[in-house]
Amino acid sequence: MQLDDLKIKEILVRENYLAESDAKAAEKIAAEHRSSLTAYLLSSNLISQELLGQAIAESLHTPYADLRAHPPTKEMIGLISEVMARRLRVVVYKQTKTEIFVATDNPEQEGLVDQLKKELEAAKIVIAYALPVHIDTTFAGYQKGLETRFSEIIKSNKKIAPELVNQIFEDALTLRVSDIHIEPQETRALVRFRIDGVLHDAGIIPLEYIETIINRIKIQAKLRIDEHFNSQDGAIRFTSVNGGPPTDLRVSIVPTLDGEKVAIRILSNYIRELTLSDIGISETLSARLQESIKKPFGMILVTGPTGSGKTTTLYSLIKELNTRSVNITTIEDPVEYKIDGVNQIQANAQTNLTFAKGLRAIARQDPNIIFVGEIRDTETADIAVNAALTGHLLLSSFHANNAAAAIPRFIDMGIEPFLVSSTLELVIAQRLVRRICNSCKVSEPVSKARLAKLGIVANNLIGSGEHTFYRGKDCPKCSGTGYNGRIGIFEFITVTPELQDLIARRPSTKEISELVSKQKFVSMFADGIEKVKNGLTSLEELLRVITAQ
Ligand SMILES: [Zn+2]
Fold first, then answer.
1. What mean pLDDT, rounded, does the chain reach?
2. 169 CB contacts (<8 Å, ≥6 apart)?
């Protein structure tokens, strides 16, 4: 039973998960954001997936199965045939000697238990409710490896190229891949997927099919198939057989010595589901962020090295700001995610559409909010500050090691300190740490000796007394690494009147650090320690990424 928004609202209010007034307000905002009520409640953290699932389960008088926190193993998924699982929307998620626990998003369908009894030959079956999105995810467990499907397709003599390319795209979406690489080698082509920042081998294409497959991709991306010696860029809009909105794929083809190499960036839809808390922004920081983005003008900079998740943070912010009453225009290189209702411009060096040029054009287009991919030269910095001064909220990424260092660096680009002090609203710095795998997470007490080694700063942050930290042991879900996915650690510098005065005097990084440490500043390391304590990441991982400051 795919519950509709109305029914869900009714349940949440009736079971006291949400006040009627909050529900009404949320409904209104959801409509403005062109989003469903459930999606809005989840993305704005008014309710967690867990609570939503529990509320629905409670109203159906069944237990709730949190399949995200406790995903079923491949063996459990395999206990029910794929056809039946998809028809009844069921999955086995727990098993004891006498009972089999089955989760479904439709517990009220007729004859459910009888059909399951036949399939599972079990004496006792316990039915639980799980959210539809989690049930869908478990269906991926029926997939054979890409490799096996490749050879099946080749044997079947169907339209090999379209079938193979579709399989690659479908798998990439299911596995939440960010990039697909098709790399030619002497005797074959290797298909690789980037997941959570790491490349994994996904399959091999035999030599004789490579050309037709690359041609297929070129045709879909509207590129020239007779061009083999120049690089080409294009885009594909792909709709999965599983339904859902189409996904935009950005295709880049470059000639190498072994043949043409294809790289495809997935401008993913799952960014739509990302919330500030999903990316690791704590409630306290989130509140400060809301404060800053409420103002109609000013500048927000997100800093960190390449690969620190800046873009994801900026997109989550834009998503937060994206309502019908404002115009948001961006200039990006590249456009990584398509966002509904936002005017996105791709910077293009070949046509001389630089950040600076694009930004100047955008400022004349009367937007409320402007996002510039990156400020990396004086000209762009100059126009950005001007835009922020003249009634626009400007968001950008900026290269700096930490939030305090970003300010002198920005002034060093040749911008007048008083202009920086009067436009800069918030500086965010961030890094990414790997998230402990939920399926094999274990706790471990921390010895005093180990803490002593960390130094004074870390110890002050961790605090005295007994502590328990966590780590991932090793399981198939995380391929034995103990980690699954990544999460950001953040620091925010809000520009207060005191800091404004200081900025106007061309301060050093040290002077800024000293001032903010007397204000409500939480360093990236301190934020990381909180995440260690909460079991989101491990101490080793935090220390790998950042040192105590
Ligand atoms: Zn694991």
1. 86
2. 180, 238, 240, 249
